[in-house]
Amino acid sequence: MKLAHCLGVTLLLATSAHVYAKETITVYTAFETDLLADFKNTFQKSHPDIDINWVRDSTGVITAKLLAEGKNTQADVIWGLAGSSLALLKEQGVIKPFTPVGVQSLKPTMLDPQANQAWYGHDAFFNVVCFNEIIAKQLNLPKPTTWEDLTKPIYKGHIVMPNPSSSGTGYTQVSAWLQTMGSEQGWDYMTRLDNNIAKYTHSGSKPCVESAQGETVIGISFALRAAKLKSQGAPIDLILPEGIGWDTEAVALVNTDSKAAQALVNWSVSKEANELYNTVYPVVAHKEVNGNVKNYPDVESAIADIDFNAMANDRAAVLKKWSAHFESRTENRS
Hints:
Blueprint: H1 2-20, E1 23-29, H2 36-46, E2 50-56, H3 59-69, E3 77-82, H4 83-91, E4 119-132, H5 133-138, E5 159-162, H6 168-181, H7 183-194, E6 197-201, H8 206-212, E7 218-222, H9 223-231, E8 236-239, E9 246-253, H10 259-268, H11 271-277, H12 308-313, H13 315-326
Parallel strand pairs: 1-2, 1-3, 5-6, 5-7
Antiparallel strand pairs: 3-9, 4-7, 4-8, 4-9
Helix pairs in contact: 6-7
Signal peptide: 1-21
Protein name: Putative 2-aminoethylphosphonate ABC transporter substrate-binding protein
Pfam families: SBP_bac_6 (PF13343)
């Protein structure tokens, strides 16, 4: 009896452990760090048996990491990475074709435009120019309104922008300049702008953070962070020169054998998830979700007309040329 009882207890414990064991999936992301907990916790309310192991860095770093790892990547899902990066990863066979539940409720303009769709946008992220009005007044600096204004000698040493090799914000703006100005004029513009650059950062948010803190006057940066900082009382004006860079953050499946990974992708395009995105992004993919975000600039009149396939295909050549000319002003990684 004692042996049978012990075996029964052992079996019960083993069964209980199996029932309550969580499956952990690895998710590569470029989401802002302060969003991760909300996204994970909301997902787990309906999927308590799935845990997320985040691998987070800026867009450029995550993209380079995935390209280096290739089909041997440890990622199960990529969630919160630029659509242009995912287009490139699709060509490399890193992400797999997959049709999430509810995809018909998403705006077609924010989805993989190719056959055998493999990535699905959930929000659009935009760039902005942050301008510290207090420091500018102290230094007698006028407010710029155009990209050309930023090349004026009066702004020398007062501009910070992201390095496009490590920051998606940086790369989207470089792409926007090249596509709207043309290649020759775009590179000429960046050469003249470089004369006024204090440094290039590895983070797309950092230039605006430094502008808000008075460490620089002008930061070419990430509009989401800019809106948050302004809402917190930062003395910054948000400027939208015509031809502002943008991209869509998107989700894609890597591990097609994982039901948990598929569940996350399905949830990531749901109305519930889009309502969560909409608390920080004014433009999201779900057709029925369209709330406003406090202090987020009206980007509709200023955004560049972007060819995302060209952005993806030209990436390596553009970054190689940019680094050869401008890398020396990039800050050291801490």
